[in-house]
Protein: Chorismate synthase
Organism: Massilia aurea
Amino acid sequence: MSGNTFGKLFSVTTFGESHGPAIGCVIDGCPPGMALTEADIQADLDRRKPGTSRHVTQRQEPDRVEILSGVYQGVTTGTPIALLIRNEDQRSKDYGNIAESFRPGHADYTYWHKYGVRDPRGGGRSSARLTAPVVGAGAVARKWLREQYGTEFLGCMRALGDIDVPFDGWEHVHANPFFAATGDAALLARMEDAMDQLRRDGDSIGARIDVIARGVPVGWGQPIYDKLDADIAYAMMGINAVKGVEIGAGFASVAQRGSEHGDELTQEGFVGNHAGGVLGGISTGQDITVSLAIKPTSSIRVPRRSIDKEGNPALVETFGRHDPCVGIRATPIAEAMLALVLIDHALMHRAQCGDVKVATPRLT
Amino acid sequence: MSGNTFGKLFSVTTFGESHGPAIGCVIDGCPPGMALTEADIQADLDRRKPGTSRHVTQRQEPDRVEILSGVYQGVTTGTPIALLIRNEDQRSKDYGNIAESFRPGHADYTYWHKYGVRDPRGGGRSSARLTAPVVGAGAVARKWLREQYGTEFLGCMRALGDIDVPFDGWEHVHANPFFAATGDAALLARMEDAMDQLRRDGDSIGARIDVIARGVPVGWGQPIYDKLDADIAYAMMGINAVKGVEIGAGFASVAQRGSEHGDELTQEGFVGNHAGGVLGGISTGQDITVSLAIKPTSSIRVPRRSIDKEGNPALVETFGRHDPCVGIRATPIAEAMLALVLIDHALMHRAQCGDVKVATPRLT
Amino acid sequence: MSGNTFGKLFSVTTFGESHGPAIGCVIDGCPPGMALTEADIQADLDRRKPGTSRHVTQRQEPDRVEILSGVYQGVTTGTPIALLIRNEDQRSKDYGNIAESFRPGHADYTYWHKYGVRDPRGGGRSSARLTAPVVGAGAVARKWLREQYGTEFLGCMRALGDIDVPFDGWEHVHANPFFAATGDAALLARMEDAMDQLRRDGDSIGARIDVIARGVPVGWGQPIYDKLDADIAYAMMGINAVKGVEIGAGFASVAQRGSEHGDELTQEGFVGNHAGGVLGGISTGQDITVSLAIKPTSSIRVPRRSIDKEGNPALVETFGRHDPCVGIRATPIAEAMLALVLIDHALMHRAQCGDVKVATPRLT
Amino acid sequence: MSGNTFGKLFSVTTFGESHGPAIGCVIDGCPPGMALTEADIQADLDRRKPGTSRHVTQRQEPDRVEILSGVYQGVTTGTPIALLIRNEDQRSKDYGNIAESFRPGHADYTYWHKYGVRDPRGGGRSSARLTAPVVGAGAVARKWLREQYGTEFLGCMRALGDIDVPFDGWEHVHANPFFAATGDAALLARMEDAMDQLRRDGDSIGARIDVIARGVPVGWGQPIYDKLDADIAYAMMGINAVKGVEIGAGFASVAQRGSEHGDELTQEGFVGNHAGGVLGGISTGQDITVSLAIKPTSSIRVPRRSIDKEGNPALVETFGRHDPCVGIRATPIAEAMLALVLIDHALMHRAQCGDVKVATPRLT
């Protein structure tokens, strides 16, 4: 209820701050009987972790996960699965000067006013570091959905600042440091150059990310409020730095006519997917397609005007280690969040309508 | 839990179908001691109701609300407020031919596959008619927020299909049938012409809507999952036909640099609002600014390919009464949903941090 | 969240006050595909309704239920089922003198201090009249559980004040006005005499009620907090006037030894049921057995000392129509509440562990 | 939702098994600004921990708590507080023979049938060891309630098997190993003897515990379902081995008349407390009084009949270390649970009605 639990039937409660002793989560509601080891989780954490290229924060965190409960002899028991990740490379001194003033674009100002107290080290609770436990929980969800329904989650970068990135195929995503679905070497070099220039400028840039779920049975979602797309929007807008979410045709649907937008059906299935795999809040069996706008990182070296706690003017420069484009590491996070939304709806559907595995209709 | 309740502390549970005997909702959690009459609610319902101009559905529904509980001698008692609206102009025969096949772009296909049974009359539960109780509940929320904090909600249309609509001032919004914030007579005439042509074509069009909350204290929202912007995205994406949601700079933030996007602070307050009034999931005290993409209405007269329940090809033409642009009536709905999100966070903040009414900082 | 919704997956949100225009509820989460008519619900309401004998309140309420939604062509659709019951025999004048002072044993004092405002007519929201919608919702739950699992709910009175009532067989329960499971005519006459004397005295008396669920599969319930017995205790203690709840051996287990209490298992099943059908919070497949203590009705004609809103001494006599023993009508209510607990756990179990209908083991 | 979270606004999610690497919890919703150290929590854990006398289990667990998050510079920040307790004295071999058969009176049978898999070491998730994190979370709740409202929680044993224990004053509770509120040396010696005999017999015994909350403001609780007493019953019945719960007069109210039971009011306050401090589900400002029946420990050395997983007859003797009367250590657990219920209602009341600290009326 107080904003640190995600999901209703597959509930993930996270804890921790960027520079505290540890971060982690408790997963309540994972079905029993699934094989699960730390290695299953570590692989996804490694895709998200800092320090994997020169384009992301150089904080060195192995993000090694420990399963504290809920697994017996390598099998989930249906009881809570606690995941623990110790923080190892906290350098709180890097953040010394931001304890007293509010970084523009950051949660400093709002946390201070809300709570009257805040942990300023590395952004405390508002740090993107807190997406690590989510990725861990997402790995558990993905494994279950894959085994039960064959559902897969895929994400890629579609724009790095003003550089649009084409979609040339999922096979490219892990062959470059940007999760770009392209093998266009010239474009990738341009992206690297842009990032290098940004670092020299001490500035940051936004990004656009696409994420999809494939192999989703028809029928997941709720009628009015916990619509599948509403819950996806909630999940995505909740990721640090996200400022916009689209499902299917998204904002392009504004200029479409009904005769163009509404996906026709034939005996072979839907003939298009402007809907993004969701109609009336319920999955159609097609790919769920989502697009995210991610703002530029707020922690930058460019000096910026602000005020301190007493309201006096202050100039803020953020040193320390940061991602010049938080959008890069957002791809595995968005995949994890989408998985968490879907497993919750999978379980809810099973509660309401029984365990009938509806045949996925043929898709376009 | 099963998707028909909105909100946690100010919970609105709706019921009803488009052509059933009645629609309505139960509001649980309205604070005691507020003056409330049916007239307070009716005003907002009248802004949403059908038949107010030739550009919206001609279904004649007075949408007269009856308060069944929770108010004693004109004052809320803290117990559930039930609102009842009888359906009066159901013409189920208009929909006869859609009971057996699935309208493209509609929830018919997904409801059928999810539940194995559906009420096809007027879209049943998936009808936009079910936004009426939400607008009613929103009126209660708006009254309380206005009286307690001076919070106001305003919305307007910013695009009708490919016609962009400028923002010239809130005073124009109720002087035209589109909720357009402009007095540009030529533009309004062009919009009327476009709508008339659409009706002749039997087709529909999308829209973009902006909605803001003004007078929101700093400090509302939760740290990680129930972020204020995440809950807003959830609320907005849950409105019928919405396919995209932006907060603040939205998708434009992709191409921005951090030195441009992050709103600086001076002693006079924030010098911009790219954040849309939310940082780290918590309100800044500035206007909350939201933008929505609304797809074109799926019910159109243009014949479209589909299949029936047995999977045989079918041609679907939707007769009956429809909005050629559901985006028009979406404005009061989006305002109501934003109010419902904010009252929930207002109450949650009060639970967590006490009833301190934080002075709203000076705003840009 | 604000205390007017019961259940998580089969959620019942009630509304209304004793003397307002109507009472009712919204059931969210009823599985689709079940045949349901108002007659299915009315039968249970009739068992609870006032005026059925001279021993209960003489308020004349037909308690006629109207289904407003969620049922199409006689079949549940999976969407919310709203039940409406109009109040017809409100005589608010009967309660005139209690608007200003607090009836001993009543919620008057606490509602006033909590909310600063209250509806005093007939106890307003705190009236036992509000159990009618619960019984209605319970009828829906019972029908589903009976059809899916063969689960049945049975209740009877075991003590009327200091008169202990033996259990001679369920067949007697509906052959007397007390829900007593006995055909002992002398005892029943003694009970009638006691009630008649009470009415002459203007006083009231407590009761003890037993309620069981039969045909519950093994495996329903949660491990630590939403234990089946914990949720049953919550449900039962929430019924008006209940002051004690026992599961299985209840308070008798205090003086038992482990070698006596712990029910042994043989190939024929459990050899006893001190556990009351629940071990570790999860159903064993045996009868769930529950016992309730119900306090004497607080509204009595005997003058009692109290204070008024200003704190001045006041003498309170409650006229109007009351049950001299609220325990009588508590039997069908307790059955309904037990059904609501069980359907919630049935659905939750299905979410977690799939739709395997575990064979009920042979029972004692 | 899956049964491992207690509370809505002050939510405690526990994790861990008796013989896994660690147990712990995440507290979400603790208000910011309260001083908190591990020592504040350790004191309560020490009252509950095993091995404090020869009458409880001899498992040696220091139950040392580590705060992993939510506290910065010794002050709560409003973000989740994670508590970690490493298990140190697991001797799983002690339980070897119970992995294949079901101990009478234990959760073995039901967990196995529910999940199809279970952690048998020390009862796994169903072990009373899992009350340690609850006591930890309760310590945080108690501190906040004490500082904000002066609320205190007190508990004592009232019966050890068939030995009734009088209440002679709270000062005695910590001067004996039973939490008995008596200084009667002869009685205490009799209790010690009874326990010694039980250990020799390899058997166990039940207990009755009273627990109260003192200094509760008037007005906490909800009207219909989340009644304060309903939530207390839920909390108490959820404690391992509890089979009965009473509020106020409890089962004695069955034989009372309304003219006796209903507590009159004078200008000095209530003249009795049969209600147990709750009327209509809302606190009266008097002491909240609760009584619990605790069954005899199921793990005993006396051989008992059972079956194994294949349904074959088996004789079960439980070796290892056990509490011959789990009721002894239940006292601090019941206090903690009561504190968790009350803080949740305190926060909920603040959400609904603002932060008015209602003056506690003069009490009897």
Q: What stands out?
A: The first strand of chain C starts at residue 5 and ends at 6.
